[in-house]
Amino acid sequence: MELQFATKCIYGKKQPFSEDVFGAISVPIYQSATFVHPEVGRSTGFDYSRLQNPTRQQLERVVASLENGLDALAFSSGMAAITALMELFQPGDHLITDADLYGGSIRLFRNISEKNGIQFSHIDCSKEDVESYVRENTRAIFIETPTNPMMNVVDIRKMSEIAKRHGLLLIVDNTFLSPYFQNPLALGADVVVHSGTKFLGGHNDTLAGFVVTNSEDISARMRFIIKTVGSGLAPMDSWLILRGIKTLPLRMERAQENALAIVDFLQGEKRVRKVYYPGIPGTKDYEICKGQARGFGSMITFEVESRGLALHILKTTRLIPFAESLGGVETLITYPVTQTHADVPEEVRLANGITDSVLRLSAGIEDKGDLIADLKQAFDSFAG
What we know:
This protein is an alpha/beta fold. It has helices spanning about 5-10, 55-65, 80-85, 105-115, 155-165, 180, 215-230, 235-245, 250-265, 285-290, 305-315, 345-350, 370-380, and strands spanning about 70-75, 95-100, 120-125, 140-145, 170-175, 190-195, 210-215, 270-275, 300-305, 330-335, 360. The chain has a domain at about 250-380: Aspartate Aminotransferase, domain 1. It has 13 helices and eleven strands. The strands form two sheets. Strands 1-7-6-5-4-2-3 form a seven-stranded mixed β-sheet, with helices on both faces. A four-stranded antiparallel β-sheet has the order 8-9-11-10. Helix 1 packs antiparallel against helix 2, helix 2 packs parallel to helix 8 and helix 11 crosses helix 13 (about 370-380).
């Protein structure tokens, strides 16, 4: 029978973990660098943990099932996953990427990938004519949706149609909505990327990254790359992410509930200039997101009336920590200018709307009344 999403979070596509002979309910942590061969020409299926490891294999099976993919590969971080993915391309290849991406992705493309001969067009994929940027040497379109941090929603089906017309790969970073709310492969994407550190892990206690695909060719190429560059996820970290995924549906629903309440509060606060959240009715982003996702997530970006107020909020929230990252059980507030997008050139930041009065908030699973009270006291205590 076809398992439902919540069940897949615990078991993957089929039965519980079967490699353990003792019947452990929790997948064992195979903290071993190497594995014994019975004899020449025979193998248990595991040779060396850089190539494969039973704990990591089970995690990859689970993540592949959540994205309805053929294969998933677990990396040591989200950036390690994207870095390995860039090895699919050759010097002289051209990629179209969204201009509003996580700052680490922008840093990688501008400082490493371009050095290696890959060319980029950084555009607003939610508003511009993407097809007009396709060149003879274009090989892929790389998007996030919603984008980080300005929450622009890109139409995945539309991008897939463009990609297919020109024989391009469509790569979608699905970190912000997670597989619980959105499945890009089902919408026509070829590759899905995740920072597993975020919603999949969900507890701010380890780093991880994933590449998921439905293509046998991409799977084989990525398997060669991961064993060659050695950036696979360690057994202990694989176990932590497996444990986190078990509660993914519960966490995503509660965090979204909190996000909706916080958005309502922010929209009523006179010192907030604008709230960026795809779940606000009456917007183009709302309609697109509703048509391709099962929810709007728990990421909120908002712009306040001044830099001074932004800094005051970061300093005076008592419950909500001022910290980088997102997707954990704790609500976190981030200052993109000095944190996630510190290495992005100022002109690029400003063009994307990331000013020094913009804050990004990742709603956690606390009581929503406590979160709103904390934000309210931070606004009310500002004397500027």
